[in-house]
Amino acid sequence: MSLSTYVPDVIAENITPMLNTSMQYMQIQKEDITYWAIHPGGKKILLEVANALQIDESDLQTSFEILKQYGNMSSVSILYVLHEMLHK
Prior knowledge:
Strand content: under 5%
Mean pLDDT: 95
Structural class: mainly alpha
Order of helices and strands: HHHH
Number of strands: 0
Largest sheet: none
C-alpha cells in the first residue's frame, strides 16, 4: 500500500472545518480537548495536522512515537496510538 503525495494537503485543507463541525455538534471548544489521538499516517501528515489545527507538535507525541516505532500500519495505527495513550 502506498499513499498519494497529496494526502497531507487534502487533510490539511479539510481537518479544521471537519473538527469545527464536530465540536459544534458536541458543543465543545478546542480548549476542551486534552488529548489528540491522530492517525500516524506519516510524518508530513502529522505535521500538517498540527499546523492546520494550530496545536503544538508535542500534543502529537504519541502519534509520532507509534509512527517511529511501527511505521504506518494502515487503519490499525490509530489503535496503537489509543492503546499507548491509555497506558500513559
